[in-house]
Structure formats: C-alpha cells, structure tokens
Write a structure and sequence with these properties.
Layout (H helix, E strand, L loop, with lengths): L1 H30 L2 H41 L17 H17 L4 H13 L3 H16 L10
Helix pairs in contact: 1-2, 2-5, 3-4, 4-5
C-alpha cells in the first residue's frame, strides 16, 4: 500500500510539473518571435515525453500487479526465503542462490509466464532492475499472448 501511495504522489507531482512546463511552452510560443517559438516547441516536447513515459510505467505496474494477484490466487507466489542483514537488506549470496533456482525453473519452462514472473522477482532481489523489468515484460507478454521480443532477459 505504501508503494502505491508513493507512486501516486510521484505521478501527481510529475503531472503538476508537466502542466507548469507546458504552460511555459505555450507562453514562449505566444510571444511570436522565431527564437521563442522554437524554444516553446522544444519545451512542449519535454512534458509530452514525460507523459508518455509515465503512461507506460503506470501500465507496466498495473499489468505486473494483475499477474501478481493472479499468481497469488493460484498459490504460486515465491516464498520469501532470503537471508537479510541486521539492517534489513537482502544478503547478496542468498539472492544469488534463489536467482540460480529461478533461472533454472525458467529455462525448464520458458513459455510459462509464472516462471518469468518469479525470475523477475529474483532479478529484483539481486538488485538487477533492468533485467527484472525485462523478465516481467516477458511474463506479461506470455500471459497476454502477445509476441515476445527475443531480447528479453534470460
């Protein structure tokens, strides 16, 4: 729940920023001079890119959450078996051991979205966020029956 609140607060702050930046871009364009019009157009591109990124990130989080709820209903969520340091951080060796098992499961069943979901969690626990995201994207694609890109994490 805390993560959802943090994400929502960050998204709202970004939307507010996009509106402010967009307003400045419109003001620059309305000035009418060629240089300010060019700057205004350039300034308007930034909130558009940011809005696109925010939309795709939100969609990704929604899809991953949907898969997580489905896997939980099936009783297939991985058990937290990681060793933690006294400060609460995940022990690297423990994360690597769990990752090795999850990778072997995924190699044994490469077309099962569940194994890719669990592998994504293992990547995240091993602090490899880019590969965790790619593995989760593959899990979503396999679940939804959409084409899977060849560059997905393995």
């Amino acid at each position: 729940m805390r993560a959802k609140l943090s994400y929502t607060a960050s998204a709202l702050a970004l939307v507010f920023y996009f509106v402010l930046v967009g307003d400045r871009g419109v003001l620059l364009i309305s000035d009418g001079r060629p240089v300010t019009v060019a700057f205004g157009i350039a300034v308007l591109v930034l909130p558009l890119i940011g809005a696109w990124f925010l939309w795709h990130t939100t969609q990704f989080a929604r899809h991953a959450g949907r898969l997580g709820r489905e896997l939980e209903a099936e009783g297939g969520l991985p058990v937290d078996e990681l060793v933690r340091t006294p400060s609460g951080r995940i022990d690297r060796a423990s994360a690597d051991a769990v990752f090795a098992r999850r990778r072997a499961e995924t190699e044994a069943a490469p077309d099962d979205w569940r194994t890719w979901f669990r592998l994504a969690i293992a990547y995240f626990d091993a602090r490899d966020t880019p590969r965790a995201r790619k593995a989760m994207q593959r899990a979503i694609a396999l679940h939804d029956g959409t084409p899977v890109r060849d560059r997905a994490a393995r």
